[in-house]
Structure prediction request, 132 residues.
Amino acid sequence: MIAGGCLCGAVRYECEGDPECSLVCYCRDCQKASGSGHVPAMSMPREKVTIIGATRSYAAPGGSGKITVRHFCPACGSLLFATPEVIPDFINIYAGTLDDPSVFKPTWSFFPHKHAPWDRVPDDLPELPLST
Prediction:
């Protein structure tokens, strides 16, 4: 079981099984949403994720150009997960919210060519092809 939650504890999640994909996204949308150079995330099949507590959300075009809905805690503002239109059967859990951060083992980079000049893309992280 993979579990995590927000800073204040009002929202929790539990995931059954292993992630379908673990990636680090460098698109401008992720940079702005996170306030950093990238977002580390794990794609979990939607039916294997249980959300405990109410979230608020914000929808905007993501790096793919399709809508990404980002979910956050209404109390503390922690960004928890996303439901991208480009992969409708998956939930992207943000690695920074994991109870055990060592569970996150990135296997792909997404939009590495858009990385901020001060952010580093690991050489051994292959680029995930964009499928729309």
